[in-house]
Automatic annotation (TrEMBL), chain A:
UniProt cross-references to PANTHER family, sorted A to Z: CARBOHYDRATE TRANSPORT ATP-BINDING PROTEIN MG119-RELATED (PTHR43790), D-ALLOSE IMPORT ATP-BINDING PROTEIN ALSA-RELATED (PTHR43790:SF3)
Stated name of the protein: ABC transporter related protein
Source domain of life: Bacteria
ABC transporter domain residues: 19-255, 267-505
Sequence similarity: Belongs to the ABC transporter superfamily.
CDD domains in the cross-refs: ABC_Carb_Monos_I, ABC_Carb_Monos_II
PROSITE patterns according to UniProt: ABC_TRANSPORTER_1, ABC_TRANSPORTER_2
SMART domains found in the cross-reference section: AAA
Coiled-coil zones: none
Key words of the record: ATP-binding, Cell membrane, Membrane, Nucleotide-binding, Repeat, Sugar transport, Translocase, Transport
GO MF annotation: an example: ATP binding
InterPro entries, per the entry: AAA+_ATPase, ABC_carbohydrate_import_ATPase, ABC_transporter-like_ATP-bd, ABC_transporter-like_CS, P-loop_NTPase
Automatic annotation (TrEMBL), chain B:
PANTHER family: ABC TRANSPORTER PERMEASE PROTEIN YPHD-RELATED, ABC TRANSPORTER PERMEASE PROTEIN YPHD-RELATED-RELATED
This protein's name: Inner-membrane translocator
Molecular-function GO terms, alphabetical: transmembrane transporter activity
Keywords: Cell inner membrane, Cell membrane, Membrane, Transmembrane, Transmembrane helix, Transport
Lineage: Bacteria, Pseudomonadati, Pseudomonadota, Alphaproteobacteria, Hyphomicrobiales
Length: 507, 322
């Protein structure tokens, strides 16, 4: 580490640069996911990496962690230029990541988890449990983590399990920690525990890249901030030099706000879909919601707020403990997705690869799979009727594919998403539930999807749209219902909603 | 990413082999066996091959349905023996029933056991491997109980015709197999049901969201498999002129092998029943050719096992490249 790399922080003290990245770029199948990623992480500080979905944060972290090879740019760790080809190399360089989904070994003790793969031995073959246990206790005590080293991971809370992961990283002598939304699955009190841990670590000189959508905690814990938007670094500096509004402006930008749906015709509208008293133990409770004809209702909430769980229960994908559905004021018994489709409801699921598409099946078969009886006589498919309809859908959504018979996995993300939409529309629904309808979709396809949804409700239908992208929800929804910890935290009329109000209600 | 137009036109030799490798192997094998053994090409021997493969063919058709849903059925050899014993008991001795009743009974017994398999797998979420492994033992035990551990001989002439008869010079089992295959091919290719089998295998969660009764589909493929195992049991019993309680041991391997050699993916959703037919014929030709060349059946097992693994290995490396 050279002197000129040290930066002076606001207190006048110098903190050496642990990690710096410049102009990092990465493309997937020719599509740029990251154009210009940058960050400067000083020892003993927390740098909050902010950005909406699709800003390129995950790709950037992937490069830093050696999970992805960058196409261009440079990464310097402690004065040494690096280009990791595996996560192991990044670990060796002292970089560790604490992800949203932890993968601890639940039936092993804390100590066993800490030393997995590098167990302390007695002799050549035997594991020295005693020594491991006392070492683990020592390091936990040093970090002021109140966790018994002999406890099984199964008996710990999620937050405690995260602390174990952090301890593991520290015990490996990692001095650069990447925390990817560490508070998304834990409660307020536990979050404070985590923040205490972070303060202990920074006091020891560890640098932390902290990714979170919760602005309040960024202002509580971070020293610096770095903002990405559309794959580019758009701003960064000391957190003391920016306020909440300024940070939001930087995250959101203006590029999406030029799309604004015309507000729906005012005047009395009939409720099309009503959900009453929805509850599912441990997921959500007391959910009441009404969606009128001609309306896009947005659902906003952080990860784990119960928003996706609610719509999946509504649709019949997941069981629920209680909840009544009314369509045009009439109670209707919805237990399975087939019931919902029959009642005119269709669901665009959150993750097209996991739940949306049969990737190896053709574009055509994916489009018509929810509506097969419509194309059949006496159980056998009428190929020409099906083919005609498929061609229409491909045209209507301008799905770019050389042939309807190609496997859907050969299409780009945006076009795959349009195939999911086409399948949902194929059943002729009146109510379209979209869970993150534009996740991982390029800007052009996004606009096409928004335009489609706008026209869809104009024809007297309704849309229930979940999105964690605030600009998207602001630009499209007539009303926004905000979920927080399994309950409805509030409702905002579209024109009055701002990023502030939504984020405030959700966190 | 390979653009769509590229993959359509100008298919390279490598891709051609990847796509039609199984057919090419079949033709090569055919030519090699014709040259190696002068008897192989005789009409008599070819009909013999077809007769020999017809039982495994019927089983492989059912197994294609099961594997398309990413399942597996290990119990079919036992189901075959049980169905054979039940059918035989209805057409043995002096007071033999109508052979059609015996066929119906055999198929029904198979379907019933298949329904138990399917119910456990689809509704109680027992892994297919475990459920059908249990059935393998249960149905074999039931066969031994039912038959008292002895063969059931003296089957009526009409019943034996199902295994030994000829229509226009074509063995009856071959005709049965052809019908089963044709019906299955049409159902998989052109029916709603067939589409749903592929959809459930391709991505069960997506299929569920699309309103498909995924549990019902999974249940049904095991019933189909069971019924076809029952039918194969009837065919085998009629051909061997008595029901043997040890019949069908290891038959599941040949059926699975045929499906896998035919390129159907064990992870579900991908596969064509036409290629299963090629797989069935390849296995049949290998056995027959090795027989003609006087290769011991001990070696045959080793060779067959190696070919199965090789087929999957080729499939894997192909999938890896794509």
């Amino acid at each position: 580490m050279t002197q000129n790399e040290a930066i002076t922080n606001e207190n006048g003290a110098t903190a050496p640069l642990l990690l710096s990245a410049e102009n990092v770029a990465k493309r997937f199948a020719g599509v740029p996911a990251l154009v210009d990623g940058r960050i400067r992480l000083r020892a003993g500080t927390v740098n909050a990496l902010c950005g909406g979905n699709g800003a390129g944060k995950s790709t950037f972290l992937g490069v830093l962690m050696g999970m992805l090879r960058r196409d261009a740019g440079s990464v310097t760790v402690k004065g040494r230029e690096v280009n990791f080809s595996s996560p192991a190399e990044a670990l060796d360089a002292g970089i560790a990541i604490i992800t949203q989904e932890l993968s601890p070994f639940l039936d092993m003790t804390v100590a066993e988890n800490l030393y997995l793969g590098r167990e302390q031995r007695r002799g050549r073959f035997f594991v020295d449990d005693k020594c491991m246990l006392s070492d683990a206790e020592a390091i936990l005590a040093r970090l002021k983590f109140n966790i018994p080293a002999g406890a099984r991971l199964r008996d710990l809370s999620i937050a405690q399990a995260q602390l174990v992961e952090i301890t593991k990283a520290i015990s490996r002598r990692s001095d650069i920690l990447i925390m990817d939304e560490p508070t998304s699955a834990i409660g307020e009190r536990e979050a404070q525990m985590l923040f205490d841990a972070i303060r202990t670590l920074t006091a020891e000189g560890v640098g932390i890249i902290y990714v979170s959508h919760r602005l309040t905690e960024i202002f509580e814990i971070a020293d610096d901030y770095t903002v990405f938007r559309d794959g580019r670094f758009v701003g960064g500096g000391s957190i003391s030099e920016i306020d909440r509004k300024g940070l939001i402006r930087s995250i959101v930008g203006r590029n999406l706000l030029d799309h604004h749906r015309e507000p729906k015709d005012t005047g009395p509208q009939k409720p099309l879909l009503e959900a009453r008293g929805f509850a599912s133990k441990g997921k959500f409770a007391d959910i009441d919601m009404t969606v009128h004809a001609g309306e896009i209702v947005g659902i906003y909430g952080l990860l784990g707020s119960g928003r996706s769980e609610f719509v999946n229960a509504l649709y019949g994908n997941e069981p629920r403990d209680s909840g009544q559905v009314l369509i045009e004021g009439k109670p209707i018994d919805l237990k399975t997705p087939a019931d919902s489709i029959g009642a005119g409801i269709s669901l665009v699921t959150e993750d097209r690869k996991q739940t949306g598409l049969s990737l190896t099946a053709s574009v055509a078969h994916n489009i018509t799979v929810a509506n097969l009886p419509h194309y059949a006589r006496k159980g056998f498919m009428n190929g020409s009727a099906e083919a005609r309809s498929v061609v229409e859908h491909i045209k209507r959504f301008s799905i770019k594919t050389a042939s309807p018979d190609l496997p859907v996995q050969s299409l780009s993300g945006g076009n795959q998403q349009k195939v999911v939409l086409a399948r949902c529309v194929d059943t002729n629904p009146r109510i379209l539930i979209c869970d993150e309808p534009t996740r991982g979709v390029d800007e052009g396809a996004k606009r096409e999807i928004y335009a489609f949804l706008g026209n869809f409700v104009k024809a007297g239908n309704a849309v229930l749209m979940i999105s964690s992208e605030v600009p998207e929800i602001l630009a499209n929804a007539d009303r926004i219902v905000v979920f927080r910890r399994g309950r409805i935290a509030g409702e905002v009329a579209g024109p009055e909603a701002t990023q502030e109000t939504l984020v405030h209600l959700a966190s | 990413m390979v653009s769509a137009s590229q993959s359509m036109s100008g298919m390279s030799l490598g891709k051609f082999i990847a796509r039609y490798g199984i057919v090419i192997s079949f033709i090569l094998l055919f030519v090699v066996l014709s040259l190696a053994s002068p008897n192989f090409l005789s009409t008599n021997n070819l009909l013999n091959v077809l007769r020999q493969v017809s039982m495994n063919g019927v089983l492989a058709v059912g197994m294609t349905f099961v594997i398309l849903t990413a399942g597996i059925d290990l119990s079919i050899g036992s189901l075959l023996a049980l169905a054979g014993a039940v059918a035989a008991s209805l057409v043995t001795g002096a007071d033999a029933f109508n052979p059609l009743l015996a066929v119906a009974a055999g198929v029904a017994v198979g379907a019933l056991c298949g329904a138990v398999n399917g119910g456990l797998i689809a509704y109680f979420k027992v892994p297919a491997f475990v459920a059908t492994l249990g059935m393998l033992s249960v149905a074999r035990g039931a066969t031994l109980l039912y038959s008292g551990g002895r063969p059931i001989p003296n089957l009526s002439l009409e019943f034996r015709w199902l295994g030994q008869g000829l229509v226009l010079g074509i063995p009856v089992p071959v005709i049965i197999f052809a019908i089963v295959f044709a019906v299955a091919a049409i159902v998989l290719r052109y029916s709603i049901y067939g589409r749903r089998v592929y959809a459930v295998g391709g991505n069960p969660r997506s299929a569920k969201t699309s309103g498909i009764n995924t549990s019902g589909i999974i249940f049904s493929v095991y019933v189909i498999m069971g019924a076809l195992a029952g039918l194969a049991g009837v065919m085998l019993t009629a051909r061997t002129t008595s029901a043997l309680p040890q019949a069908g041991i290891g038959y599941e391997l040949d059926a699975i092998a045929a499906v896998v050699i035919g390129g159907t993916s064990l992870t579900g959703g991908i596969g064509r029943i036409g290629y299963t037919l090629v797989g069935v014929l390849i296995i049949g030709m290998i056995s027959n050719g090795l027989d003609l060349m006087g290769v011991s059946s001990y070696y045959q097992q080793i060779i067959k096992g190696s070919i199965i693994v090789l087929a999957v290995l080729i499939d894997r490396s192909r999938a890896g490249r794509e």
